[in-house]
Model the fold of this input.
Amino acid sequence: MARVADDVKRKILRIVEIAGVFFAFAGLLVWCSIPNVGYLADENPETTAFIELRRHEAEDAGKPFKLEWKPVPMKKISVYLRRAVIYAEDINFYEHEGVDWDAIEKAAGDDFSRGGSTITQQLAKNLYLSPSRSVVRKVRELLIAYRLEDELDKHRILELYLNVVEWGDGVFGAEAAARHWFHHSALSLSPVEAARLAIALPNPRERAPDVRDAELTKKCERILRWMRREGVISAAYYDEQVTGC
Done:
């Protein structure tokens, strides 16, 4: 009986060893797949995973793909849009190191592949990944986010995100979004326009800035109230413009 028990223990230990080697090898492969992001400190990407995804989707559907995309420096993006996006997407942006584990826990529950993404994670996804949901993709997103935080400062991460995020059919980045939806530059965006662009994320196809419904209006009003509390806009401006949401 003791001999049988010893054989079982040896088999279990062998299985554990094999599993350990497998997961270590899989982890190494995932780590080796993480792209070099250092060049982004001084250069803009020539394209992104999401732009190429939308291009291929249009080709598969036999439709033309018209890309509207013009990266601009942060100084040419309205401070209202910068603040609105941080409030709407990642209120702890300047506190975390790429991943907000508390937010992931709240949003994801038992499903690690869903929700809780920071701006840094969303930048990683837009640049290099896909919108599909899987544990492996989520792990890659986390690792890329940490690498982005290691190589770039917060100013550059936010600048890149605002310049690559999708804001409509073929519309990428703040400058193209401002001109597409409001017919002027990203620098000229008003607080209400900035709030409308912010609440369109991360699904601008369903929550486009020109969509008007009660839920989106409440979100817009919340962003303006936050701007008022933070001193980004005055109380008088808030009272005058909040009805524009």
DSSP finds eleven helices and three strands in the chain. Residues 16-32, 110-114 have pLDDT under 50 and may be disordered. Residues 1-32 form one domain. The longest strand covers residues 166-168.
